[in-house]
Each structure stands twice: as C-alpha cells, then as structure tokens.
Amino acid sequence: MFVKASEGFVIFPGGFGTLDELFESLTLIQTGKIGSFPVVLFDTAYWGPMLDWIRTHMLENGLISPEDLDLVRLTDEPAEAVEFITARFDARIAEGSA
What we know:
Elements: E1 9-11, H1 16-30, E2 39-42, H2 44-59, H3 66-69, E3 72-75, H4 78-95
Parallel strand pairs: 1-2, 2-3
C-alpha cells in the first residue's frame, strides 16, 4: 500500500522496517507489479557496503540480474535524488503510464 500513493522513494538509513520497505519496493519493481519506480538510497557510507555485498554475493551467484542493480540510485546529494525521481516520473508521463 505504501507504493500506491508514491512516485518514488528516497530511503535514508534505518533499521529492519526500512530494509523491509526497500526490498519490498525492489521486489515489486523486479516482478513487474509496479512500473518504473525510482528508488534512491541516501547516504553512500551507510548503503554502500550493502550494495557491495549485493554485487559480490547476489549478482555474482546469479540471484539477481545486472539490470536489477539499475533499480537503485545511491547518492549523498539531495539535488541528484530529486533529479532521478523527476526524470523517471517524466519518462512515465511520456510513455503514458503515469
């Protein structure tokens, strides 16, 4: 339900609930339950090690595809987060799916 009224997520460092919402949103995108939905992870020092682990364990073992890594943008810059979300929204409008 948290996805229904959203146009994207900017996810800040958090605990289990934050991880649950992060992976639920990525699963919904990966399985096609929702369309082009931007997910931004804010704080490279916090999220970077997790993304490194995903690359070295999940990707290298074929548990996710390289395209799945493109679902997430990692940044420390608020303007970059906004640009990523608005660009994806504009693309959805252009294709008629927003």
